Amino acid sequence: MDVLWAPWRMDYILGPKPDSCVFCVPEHAGEDRERLILGRAATCYALMNKFPYNSGHIMICPYRHVSCPTELTAEESSECMAALTATVAILKEAFRPHGINAGLNLGEAAGAGIAAHLHFQIVPRWNGDNSFMAVFGQTHVIPELLLDTYDRIRPRFANAGPFRNI
């Protein structure tokens, strides 16, 4: 029998849950690598998912703590879409996926893990990436360490689309 180790998952399962919103980030960029923030725009930012569905799983979040797109200003809405578009272009170049899932879940009943703070999910996909592991073992195989992925794609966010060089 082969054993697949995913010890990073235990940190999430047993680890302390923050009292504050994980998507409400400080204005300074000093913690960006630790928080996996890839790029900052005026009203939103891009960050990697600490518990990804696939390598390159990125989210776009408005800085403002809102739970629905109807609460965004026109500027925030426009910039979130520009950030999503720039992120898709970066993922296509860096990962060469066969496809990309992009969207959002509004509310806990719709599958939002953190329903109180709006976040767009962008997940690169490859033909056959839902292998037997996901179907039978409810397990995802992520082939690259998070910080390796971060270091590889972070430079691509500097001045891409609405992101400013930080």
TrEMBL record:
Record EC number: 2.7.7.53
Location of the HIT domain: 22-132
Alphabetical keyword list: Nucleotide-binding, Nucleotidyltransferase, Transferase
Transferase as UniProt keyword: yes
InterPro entries in UniProt: AP-4-A_phosphorylase (IPR052908), FHIT (IPR039383), HIT-like (IPR011146), HIT-like_sf (IPR036265)
Signal sequence, renumbered to the chain: none
Gene3D superfamilies: HIT-like
One Pfam family named in its UniProt record: HIT
List of catalytic residues: 119
Positions that bind substrate: 49
PROSITE patterns per UniProt: HIT_2
CDD domains from the UniProt entry: FHIT (cd01275)
GO molecular function, one term: ATP:ADP adenylyltransferase activity
Protein name: AP-4-A phosphorylase
